[in-house]
Design goal:
alpha/beta; Rossmann fold; five-stranded parallel beta sheet; 13 strands; elongated
């Protein structure tokens, strides 16, 4: 028997469906994977999976030869965390697995790719401790889903979704939108969320949420050896029952030059404890900002309706889409639309250039946005029925993959009680 946490589902396996636009696949940890393929097509799919953002921490090695090659390889070598085996129809899969079990280290997980779609075979594979059985032919996302699924429990599917919000240009209001969307995610969708303000020198999340915590994200990024769940929890500032803040210091006593992987351990820790993490990414192009965007589960680009924003949005959209071939494309919205006497590029022209429409067009409303910013409030707090409040909720639903939420119905006495309170 291969030592492995077995599946309990005895249902007949089926070909993997096309991934939904809102499908969330949690990234795999730092593991070693060795694949033994029979066909070039499968080897190509596995190779492409190794380049997916969710397997960037994994070390992948691909060999040809299938089951026989795997058995021979592990007679004199230790087995990795995960073995991926492709079996041809003529192969004695069960017999091969029995031989593999004699040379397989305890704790190794096995995924089998085969062309036989048979429930009896599947049950026998489960009995032998096989982790997953994937029907060939496979595509890249099938391999990613199968490997990552070994390390995330189905009931914890929502945990660890990272949403990155970035401006196509400075001053377009990306931080304001990020903070209001996070507020909608926490309040209206009832998801425990955290806003991570990554603009350490000039971040505004503390001002927008009317928070002035003594500690924040700088304490974590400059103390990488101390990062764990308890340490991050101490740095979080509570904004509401469901919303916390990892604030930027917004001071200039030191410079904030970071390496490409400086925030990795922070994001990993947040993923393990928080269902939704909203990254307020500053408008700059460095190794770590690029890594934060490409590594996020969903990305929102915020742009104003002018030529420079159109160019930058197009460049960012194309690069992110090309770097994440197995994810849905990034989303973008237009902000500050309708400034009096300012020539603007229409949403239709943006859609034509980027080949997809914006998910929202937020109007220029200086009075309510200015009042909210100066009071340390969200738009929903200033005016719950304002049209942009509904827009932020719609953006939140698109980014989290959540459907329309029903707000609790008030009592029939609510209008009367409201009048009495006002008096």
């Amino acid at each position: 028997m291969i030592s492995y946490a077995q599946k309990t589902d005895d249902e007949q396996p089926a070909a993997a469906p096309t991934p939904a636009a809102d499908e969330h696949i949690a990234p795999a940890p730092r593991i070693s994977i060795q694949a033994f393929c029979e066909t070039v097509e499968t080897a190509s799919a596995v190779q492409a999976a190794g380049e997916d953002r969710r397997l960037t921490k994994a070390h992948l090695k691909i060999q040809m030869g299938g089951m026989a090659a795997a058995i021979e390889a592990y007679r004199s070598a230790p087995t990795p965390n995960v073995i991926l085996l492709e079996a041809e129809p003529r192969t004695d899969i069960l017999g091969g697995l029995d031989q593999l079990a004699t040379v397989c280290d305890a704790g190794t997980r096995v995924i089998v790719i085969g062309k036989v779609n048979d429930v009896t075979l599947y049950r026998e594979l489960v009995r032998r401790g096989v982790s997953d059985y994937v029907i060939a032919p496979v595509v890249t996302i099938d391999v990613v889903r199968s490997i990552c699924g070994l390390f995330s429990a189905p009931e914890a599917k929502a945990v660890g979704r990272i949403i990155a919000v970035v401006g196509a240009k400075g001053g377009v209001g990306a931080s304001t939108i990020a903070h209001n969307v996070a507020w909608a995610i926490a309040r209206d969708l009832a998801l425990d969320s955290v806003v991570a303000d990554l603009d350490l020198a000039f971040g505004t999340a503390g001002l927008d949420y009317n928070q002035d915590p003594p500690q924040g994200i700088a304490d974590a990024v400059f103390s990488p050896d101390r990062i764990d769940t308890a340490f991050i929890d101490r740095l979080l500032s509570k904004c509401t029952d469901h919303l916390s803040l990892l604030a930027a210091p917004a001071t200039l006593e030191r410079v904030y030059d970071f390496g490409t992987e400086a925030f990795d351990s922070i994001f990993d820790t947040l993923r393990s404890t928080m269902p939704c993490i909203v990254l307020d990414v500053p408008h700059q192009w460095t190794g770590w900002t690029r890594r934060a965007l490409i590594g996020a589960d969903d990305i929102l680009i915020v742009a104003s309706p002018d030529l420079a924003n159109l160019r930058n949005t197009k460049n960012m959209y194309d690069l992110i889409k090309a770097s994440r071939p197995n994810d849905r494309p990034p989303l973008y919205c237009l902000n500050q639309v309708g400034v009096p006497k300012r020539p603007e590029i229409s949403a239709a022209e943006f859609a034509k250039a980027i080949e997809t429409p914006p998910i929202a067009t937020i109007p220029f409303e200086p009075q309510i946005f200015g009042a909210a910013a100066n009071n340390g409030q969200m738009i929903a707090e200033v005016s719950a029925n304002h049209r942009t409040t509904e827009m932020f909720l719609q953006i939140a639903q698109r980014l989290t993959g959540r459907g329309e939420t029903k707000k609790p119905r008030g009592s029939f006495l609510a209008p009367l009680l409201g009048k009495l309170r006002s008096k």
